[in-house]
Amino acid sequence: MALIRLDAAGVTVPGPPAERTILAPTTLELAERRIGVVGGNGSGKSTLVRLLNGLVTPTTGRVLLDDVDVARRGAAVRRRVGFCFTDPSAQLVMPTCVEDVELSLRRTVRDRATRRAAAIDVLDRFGLAHLADVSVHALSGGQRQLLALAGVLATEPDVLVTDEPTTLLDLRNTRLVAATLFDLDVQLVLVTHDLELAARCERVLVVADGAVVADGPAEASIAAYVASVEAGGPAGAGGSGR
User: Fold this and answer.
1) Nearest-CA neighbor of 236 among 209, 204, 202, 200?
2) Residue-range domains of the chain with CATH
3) Which of 36, 82, 119, 189 fits a disulfide with 102 by CB distance 3.0 to 4.6 angstroms?
4) pLDDT tens across 65-102, in order?
5) Is the dihedral of CA 18, 20, 24, 29 positive or negative?
6) Where does residue 40 fall: left (phi above 0), alpha (psi -120 to 50 degrees), or beta otherwise?
7) pTM of the prediction?
8) Closest C-alpha to 134, from 143, 125, 126, 142
9) How far apart, in whole angstroms, are the C-alpha atoms of residue 112 and residue 115?
């Protein structure tokens, strides 16, 4: 497993009217195989996980992936840390499924024929090979999410960060995507509102109002989160970050 060390003295964004804090000072070491992140809408979950591959950089402090500084060597880190967004439409930019996966492989597989064959192999691993030449716009929600995962995983990252990957899915596709995620041989950082999914992780972080307010084994962290929500506390409230 990779060792991710986050020592951010805060993340702020400029005004107007004034500079705004979206993540409080945070220090973490993440080495577990399956790490869940839960919290209310606007709590800062997405800001936190986007620090891990440089989509967000801390105002002060730094993030390291096995001693590699994410801010200074962002391209190298992003080759090792894949990121999947809530809405796969944000990632699917090519007309067909196979072309979208080929796009992910363009830097590592130069020969066109070889690249297409490799893309088909990736699609096959996700049960999508029969849809290779189908428009991405003709896919179901679950198929689009699987295709987005396939595109990210085609580059064989060591770490996969997924930001609410099942939020837009029905029950069947939620189960399909969840089964795929937990069967992967990569380190997984999973942001989710689905507490059943979070419970399958070894460690769960609870984020509220831009701060990590609980951090520990899944059962204990989820219990603390639920208790706070039921009490109307900050873990259930929206904060200043996403």
Assistant:
1) 209
2) 4-236 (3.40.50.300)
3) 119
4) 999 999 999 999 999 999 999 999 889 999 999 999 99
5) negative
6) beta
7) 0.91
8) 143
9) 5
